[in-house]
């Protein structure tokens, strides 16, 4: 991946013409606008109000009265009235945002139903979609809504023939950095860092100060480390590794940039699994940047693998044409393949997500992210130097193993989005907004809708002062030196969002922060560190109304993970079933070689632990860390997390990269003999 400076304004387009097809996920009404006979551009603004009136009449009809509760009808009418008022006043962007939010509620089966919704529910939904289309047809919402595209059918392909490894991406991939964010005049700053966080090593407990005063610490169970394992040394590896992990029923998968491992005994032993064979032989072959997730909804592993260009995406002579492969398998398929003494790669089938599928002709793809929702799989990656692809796939289609389609959006403007984990029925693509160091933004897409909207996320300014060109200082900006004197954070250098997860009605977002603020000469922080914020999500149409249309989601808390002696960078977040916010990250310098760590940051206090201990090597160079960390819920132990990372170790005089995993969580129950992931 690379960082690219982009423009100072975020651009949206909703190129509407002809039929606008909105696909929905499994468990919803399942129709498209075209199937309902709704055509863009055929109605005037009066059609909006006419169809809003029809929706109101349907709610108050005898059918509505016989199916909907009185409270449900009142809530629906409040939303309908608000939408009508906003549309009449010219606030079409708010009107379409609020009325479209009804789709998820109508289709959820949890609200506005008494168990007999049937035809009425479909008619309500069809009218809401028609109103959406009416408002789009007026041309007044091009700046605030994006309409997606449905791909052609993509057929699955088996994984059969082994493929030999190609050249890894290596450290030369990313010498550019993401653009600096400016700090707006009058922005709120953290001027008192507060108590520091302490990372506990792997060699036993260590004393540490409380993260907050004792009186303010809620009584929560301690973090328990249930299992830690050294996965091993990959036969093929690239620097950095970006190790990912996913688990389900004692099947554990671990991948990096050029290698992968699997275990069927909860991590007690691991064997290699070739990502080159799974990716297959086409275009530029496998590159790097793999992402792993597990979906308990359909009991499937999803493995996204990034391809290379020919001869290389970084080569000026390259055609700039690379693709992704989405590989699908299940814990049972992996076990059955091993039991049949077949190569584990045959447990997978793949879908090729080519550049042409997304109508891309000018640039290549990079920096993927993935999240699993209730009925949908969400993807995103950069269109390098240009914008992003954001996509939604149907989990039921993927689990069936047949043809699939992708509902996708291509957007120009800032790159480097992070998908929020644990998203439920809505996908959330988060970024630190444009060039402002005091504003984030989220693009969100209900699984029942085909329209993407954006909300602002104001937060305390990010300390993002970078080193000046040629600055010899070993402790400026994001820089952190290893015991060998090398800058192991060279790939960080910017405040892009690296972590996001959903807990209830909160969206948690995190990023790496510098020692000081742009435009200032005094450092507030002794080391690069992690800054985070949580924002309140308006989950219902009434919440949308209460927040003025949900244009801005307020921050409900902010905090930092920092230590005076080591840099702490590259966060990833996940949410356990009991509401803990888990974090994984890397830390190091100047007396500590870079190492992975993880813990829980909420509820307080912060509790942070090493995943594996690095050796202080004196030759060969310390491994860089980046570009992201990996953490997920450990299935079926959903109150626990599983995380991963890698370090350098001195193996009989040979410096080797060791991968590792750790399973942990808050619990009053201590680890038992034989505990595994």
- Biggest sheet character: 5 strands, antiparallel
What's the count of strands? 32
What is the overall silhouette? globular
- The amount of helix comes to 10-25%
Low-confidence sequence ranges: 1-43, 168-177, 203-217
Beta fraction: 25-35%
Determine the oligomeric state from the structure.
Answer: single chain
Strand line-up in the sheet with most strands? 1-21-20-19-18
Radius of gyration: 25 Å
Number of helices: 10
> Distance between the terminal alpha carbons, to the nearest Å?
31 Å
Name the average pLDDT.
85
Structural class: alpha+beta
Q: Can you tell me about this structure?
A:
With 677 residues, the chain is α+β, with helices and mostly antiparallel strands. Strand 27 and strand 28 form a beta hairpin. The two termini are 31 Å apart.
Would you spell out the secondary-structure blueprint of this structure?
Elements: H1 45-59, H2 62-67, H3 70-88, H4 92-100, H5 102-108, H6 118-137, E1 146-147, E2 149-150, E3 157-158, E4 199-200, E5 223-232, E6 244-248, E7 251-255, E8 260-263, E9 271-272, H7 275-279, E10 286-295, E11 300-307, E12 324-329, H8 331-339, E13 349-353, E14 365-372, E15 376-383, E16 387-394, H9 395-400, E17 406-412, E18 418-419, E19 426-432, E20 439-446, E21 451-458, E22 497-503, E23 506-513, E24 529-536, H10 541-546, E25 555-561, E26 567-575, E27 581-588, E28 595-602, E29 607-610, E30 631-633, E31 641-651, E32 654-666
Parallel strand pairs: 4-29
Antiparallel strand pairs: 1-21, 2-17, 3-13, 5-32, 6-7, 7-8, 8-9, 10-11, 11-12, 12-13, 14-15, 15-16, 16-17, 18-19, 19-20, 20-21, 22-23, 23-24, 24-25, 26-27, 27-28, 28-29, 30-31, 31-32
Helix pairs in contact: 1-3, 1-6, 3-4, 4-6, 5-6
């Amino acid at each position: 991946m690379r960082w690219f400076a982009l423009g100072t304004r975020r651009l949206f387009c909703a190129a509407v013409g002809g039929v606008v097809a909105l696909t929905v996920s499994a468990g919803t009404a399942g129709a498209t606008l075209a199937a309902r006979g709704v055509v863009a551009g055929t109605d005037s603004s009066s059609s909006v109000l006419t169809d809003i009136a029809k929706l109101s009449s349907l709610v108050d009809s005898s059918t509505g009265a016989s199916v909907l509760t009185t409270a449900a009808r009142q809530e629906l009418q409040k939303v309908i009235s608000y939408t009508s008022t906003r549309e009449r006043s010219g606030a079409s962007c708010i009107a379409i945002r609020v009325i479209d939010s009804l789709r998820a509620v109508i289709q959820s089966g949890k609200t506005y139903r008494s168990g007999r919704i049937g035809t009425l529910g479909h008619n309500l939904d069809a009218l809401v979609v028609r109103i959406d289309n009416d408002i789009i047809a007026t041309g007044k919402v091009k700046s605030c809504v994006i309409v997606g595209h449905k791909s052609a059918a993509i057929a699955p392909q088996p994984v059969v023939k082994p493929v030999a490894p190609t050249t890894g991406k290596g450290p030369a991939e990313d010498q550019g950095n993401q653009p600096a964010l400016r700090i707006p005049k009058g922005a709120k700053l953290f001027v008192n860092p507060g108590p520091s966080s302490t990372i506990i090593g792997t060699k036993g407990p260590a004393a540490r100060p409380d993260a907050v005063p004792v009186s303010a610490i809620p009584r929560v169970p301690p973090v328990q480390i249930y299992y830690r394992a050294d996965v091993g040394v990959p036969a093929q590896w690239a620097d950095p590794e970006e190790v990912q992990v996913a688990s389900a029923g004692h099947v554990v998968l671990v991948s990096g940039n050029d290698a992968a491992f699997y275990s069927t005994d909860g991590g007690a032993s691991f064997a290699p699994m070739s990502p080159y064979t799974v990716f297959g032989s086409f275009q530029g072959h496998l590159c790097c940047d793999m992402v792993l997730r597990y979906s308990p909804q359909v009991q499937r592993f999803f493995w996204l693998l990034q391809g290379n260009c020919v001869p290389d995406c970084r080569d000026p002579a390259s055609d700039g044409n690379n693709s992704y492969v989405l590989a699908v398998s299940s814990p049972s398929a992996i076990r059955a393949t091993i039991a049949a003494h077949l190569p584990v790669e045959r447990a997978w089938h793949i879908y090729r997500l080519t550049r042409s599928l997304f109508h891309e002709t000018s640039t290549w793809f990079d920096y993927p992210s993935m999240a699993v929702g209730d009925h949908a799989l969400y993807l995103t990656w950069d269109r390098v130097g240009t914008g992003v692809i954001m996509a939604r796939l149907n989990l039921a289609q993927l689990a069936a193993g047949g043809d699939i389609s992708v509902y996708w959006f291509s957007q120009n403007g800032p790159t480097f989005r992070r998908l929020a984990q644990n998203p439920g029925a809505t996908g959330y693509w988060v970024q630190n907004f444009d060039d402002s160091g005091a504003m984030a933004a989220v693009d969100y897409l209900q699984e029942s809708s085909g329209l993407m909207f954006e909300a602002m996320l104001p937060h305390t300014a990010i300390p993002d002062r970078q080193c000046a060109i040629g600055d010899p200082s070993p402790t400026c900006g994001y820089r952190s030196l290893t015991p060998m004197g090398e800058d192991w954070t060279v790939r960080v250098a910017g405040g892009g969002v690296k972590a996001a997860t959903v807990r209830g009605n909160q969206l948690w977002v995190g990023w790496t922060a510098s020692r000081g603020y742009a435009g200032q000469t005094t450092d507030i922080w002794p080391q690069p560190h992690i800054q985070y914020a949580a924002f309140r999500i308006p989950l219902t149409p009434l919440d949308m109304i209460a927040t003025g249309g949900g244009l801005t989601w307020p921050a409900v808390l902010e905090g930092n993970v920092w230590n005076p002696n080591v840099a702490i960078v590259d966060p990833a977040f996940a949410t356990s079933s009991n509401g803990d916010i888990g974090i994984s990250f890397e830390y190091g310098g100047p007396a500590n070689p870079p190492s992975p760590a993880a813990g829980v940051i909420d509820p307080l206090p912060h509790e942070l632990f090493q995943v594996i201990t690095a050796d202080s090597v004196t030759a060969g160079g310390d491994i860089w860390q980046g570009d992201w960390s990996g953490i997920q819920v450990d299935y079926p132990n959903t109150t626990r997390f599983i995380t991963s990372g890698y370090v350098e170790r001195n193996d009989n005089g040979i410096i080797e990269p060791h991968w590792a995993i750790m399973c942990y969580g808050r619990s009053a129950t201590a680890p038992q003999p034989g505990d595994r992931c």
